Amino acid sequence: MATYLVTGANRGIGLEFCQQLKERGNEVIATCRSSTKELDEIGVRIETDVDITSGESVLKLVQEIRGMKIDVLIQNAGILEKNSLSNLDPESIRRQFEVNALSPLCFTRAMLNNLTKGSKVILMTSRMGSIDDNCSGSSYGYRMSKVALCMAGKSLSIDLRPMGVSVALLHPGLVSTRMTGFSPHGISPKQSVSGLLERIDSLTIENSGTFWHANGDTLAW
Ligand SMILES: NC(=O)c1ccc[n+]([C@@H]2O[C@H](COP(=O)([O-])OP(=O)(O)OC[C@H]3O[C@@H](n4cnc5c(N)ncnc54)[C@H](OP(=O)(O)O)[C@@H]3O)[C@@H](O)[C@H]2O)c1
Fold first, then answer.
1. pTM confidence score
2. Distance, CA 145 to ligand 1 centroid (Å)?
């Protein structure tokens, strides 16, 4: 039975990952800052007080799971704050860099002792972090942080290859969650996660370092 660790597991896409992984019979370690009734009801192992920007809380998690093999590390936690040119709040941009780019990189490093040959690292990025796809501008903090995450993921795919650990950069589609104001144009977390799990299942050391849409399309950087 494979073990999956999911960050930002208390709601949205992370919650749905836990639901579907549990249904598939996987072992799930759901990490979050604070749990929710919905997460409690799934019946997976929950680790609370895990703020990915806090070295102290990540270290506590590392101690909790010492010696456990993680087959798939799903780094899903992220934030979206609006920054246009007329509303350029540098603190907000720094915050998005910290949560969306720097923390997943540091979190991966903190988990290295739990990864072995065949393990997979999943970074939940966004098509908004594709320079090629940017035809609407704005969203400075989110776009800049996700493009930085893509670059971190590409480097990780190269650096972890000798260990036999593969890395994927995944875009979930436009998904109806709190992040998107439960957009009526978005797909459901259920539909998104079922596509994301197909991508994760098909990730190998040979195709490591690819940027995929949940629907299977390869995205341009
Ligand atoms: N929804 C979309 O259309 C879409 C599109 C492209 C990419 N994505 C990406 O997909 C991922 C999940 O998005 P979502 O739509 O599910 O968003 P969401 O519903 O807003 O959920 C975000 C999750 O991240 C957690 N989180 C935020 N900051 C954290 C921190 N410092 N430490 C630990 N957890 C933290 C939140 O926990 P709290 O409850 O504690 O705040 C929550 O569990 C994100 O990385 C997002 O950028 C989403």
1. 0.98
2. 13
